[in-house]
Amino acid sequence: MEQSIIILKPDALQRGLIGPILTRLEQRGLKLVGLKLLQIEEALARKHYAAHEGKPFFPGLVQYITSGPVVVVAIRGKAVIEIVRNTVGATNPIKAAPGTIRGDFAVDIGRNLIHASDSPASGDQEVAIFFKPEELVAWNRSTDSWVNE
Ligand SMILES: Nc1ncnc2c1ncn2[C@@H]1O[C@H](COP(=O)(O)OP(=O)(O)O)[C@@H](O)[C@H]1O
Ligand SMILES: [Mg+2]
After folding, report:
1. 97 alpha carbon – ligand 1 mean position (Å)
2. Residues acting as catalytic residues
3. What residue spans of 1-149 are helical by DSSP H?
4. pTM score > 0.90 for this model?
5. Sorting pLDDT into bands at 50, 70 and 90, what band is 132?
6. Average pLDDT, integer, range 28-51
7. Cys-Cys crosslink for 96: which of 17, 103, 105, 116, Cβ 3.0 to 4.6 Å?
8. Among 5, 91, 108, 113, which residue has the most ligand 1 atoms within 8 Å of its CB, making it the best to mutate?
């Protein structure tokens, strides 16, 4: 069982796209096990994006992700890392396929609406950063057996 963190970035809230984006994730069959709204502080932003420190876009990225509230979602299930990344689309919305979240709602790499964990290890790490164990709910969905064989 994998887990993934999704962050609906400040542009998603400002543009009123939380509902449409969460709808796509739910409709795909993904199971939400944690959800919260918060404003990311600079220290957390730097930690979350530590792999990008030193790159030219890093200061703008920290400014962007801390510029307003975000919605953070934890998702659990079989192969959710790859499923979520494919539903989100390419990092640069110019290259993102139609039908993906970035391909349908975004046009600029600096305003690409959504973060998704990129490996099972980073999924585990990011879930632990954003959620306390008691904030995660392992629940049985009556449709589970219709979503996964
Ligand atoms: N060239 C760039 N210019 C501006 N922002 C960028 C650029 N590359 C990446 N970013 C920002 O940094 C985030 C993290 O980059 P990366 O981990 O490569 O992509 P992803 O979010 O698809 O995993 C991107 O989602 C985007 O917000
Ligand atoms: Mg990434």
Report:
1. 16
2. 115
3. 10-14, 18-28, 42-48, 58-65, 80-88, 101-105, 120-130, 144-147
4. yes
5. very high
6. 98
7. 103
8. 91
Of 64, 55, 51, which is closest to residue 7 (Cα–Cα)?
Answer: 64
Minimum CA distance residue for ligand 1 atom 27: 110
Handedness of CA 60, 129, 101, 91 (dihedral sign): positive
**77 φ/ψ angles, rounded to the nearest 5 degrees:** 160, 180
**Phi and psi angles of residue 87, each rounded to the nearest 5 degrees, phi first:** -70, -35
CA 142 to ligand 2 centroid distance, Å: 33
CATH architecture of 2-140: 2-Layer Sandwich (3.30)
**Ordered strands of the 114-116 beta sheet:** 31-38, 70-77, 2-8, 114-116
Residue nearest to atom 18 of ligand 1 (CA): 91
- Contact between residue 141 and residue 26 where contact means Cβ atoms under 8 Å apart: no
